[in-house]
Amino acid sequence: MSVDGALTWHGYPVGMARTILVVDDEPKIRELVRLYLEQAGYVVAEAADGPEAVERHARLAPDLVVLDLMLPGLDGMEVTREIRRRAETPILMLTARAEEIDRILGLELGADDYLPKPFHPRELVARVKAILRRAEGGARPDRPLEAGTLRIDPRRREVTVAGRPIALRPREYDLLAALARDPGVVWSRDDLLTQVWGTDYPGETRTVDVHVSALRARLGPDGPAIEAVKGIGYRLVAREPAR
User: Fold this and answer.
1) Is 60 helix (H, G, I), strand (E, B) or coil?
2) Mean pLDDT, to the nearest integer, of 127-151?
3) How many CB atoms lie within 10 A of CB 56?
4) Which fold has domain 8-136?
5) CATH classification (class only), 145-237
6) Which end of the chain is more exposed for a tag (fewer CB within 10 A), N or C?
7) Helix orientation angle between 170-180 and 206-219, rounded to the nearest 10 degrees
């Protein structure tokens, strides 16, 4: 059921249910995703191409966008750019491409997570729930975190490297904060998934690798090193300010 032209959904006012915008040029995929999301209690709107996605996002202000990477008109990267110019709506990007660079670029542009095709619709619903839960936020420690040139202000969710502000997506911030709480300590990928994405997150550990790659690019050469520990996971190593 669509939000377009409807004031109620399953007997409830639309404003009481979360609205998900599903963007894909394949009708069968949109229909399948709609079915599972509606069964989970969400209101679903659809778009079949990039320009329609931008227009519906502006008009409906959905709580989350499920966005295919390959779209006619404007591709998923361009749609993400347009959305990010006006809003911080969480974005779950769908991609049939195998290249890691496409996933990294999507995350750098502002996508909150990605899900490779083909996917199980139940996994998509679980990821939607996890992203929305993370977007709601929660209690965070107020103590600033410092590691060499890195400084994190949890109250403002602000990050600086050598005094330079660093703009991070919400999931990137959470990942960096988790690593920075214990510099030098090795975190397994499974532990990072649990800490950052939630205990019931159904994603693969490869999600951590992609986010780490995007985070390294944002921090730059002056920022802390996020070192891979073969067969285990990652640790944060502080870089001291240049003298």
Assistant:
1) helix
2) 76
3) 19
4) Rossmann fold (3.40.50)
5) mainly alpha
6) C
7) 90
Identical fold for domains 8-136 and 145-237, yes or no, is no
The predicted-structure confidence for 44-77, as pLDDT tens digits, reads as follows 999 999 999 999 999 999 999 999 999 999 999 9
User: pLDDT at position 117, please?
Assistant: 86
Q: Is the pTM of this model over 0.70?
A: no
Angle at 170 between CA 168 and CA 176, to 5 degrees: 65
With residue 173 as reference, give the H or E element that holds it: helix 170-180
Residue 187: its H or E element: strand 187-188
Dihedral angle sign, alpha carbons of residues 152, 84, 226, 178: positive
**pLDDT, averaged across the chain:** 83
pLDDT at 200: 57
Give the type of residue at 10.
H
Banded model confidence at residue 80, pLDDT cuts 50, 70, 90: very high
Coil, strand, or helix at residue 87?
coil
Q: Where are the domains of the chain?
A: 8-136, 145-237
How far is the C-alpha of 204 from the C-alpha of 165, rounded, in Å?
31
Q: In angstroms, what CA-CA distances link 114 with 142, 186, 226?
A: 30, 25, 21
Asked if 69 contacts 106 with a C-beta cutoff of 8 angstroms, the reply is: yes
pLDDT at res. 201: 58
Q: Which helix (H) or strand (E) holds 39?
A: helix 27-39
Residues 214 and 101: their CA atoms lie apart, in Å, by 10
Instruction: Collapse the DSSP code of 140 into the 3-class scheme (helix H, G, I; strand E, B; otherwise coil) and give the result.
Output: coil
* Strand 64-68 versus strand 225-229 pairing type: unpaired
pLDDT band at 140 (very low <50, low <70, confident <90, very high): very low
Q: Tokens standing for 11?
A: 């007997």
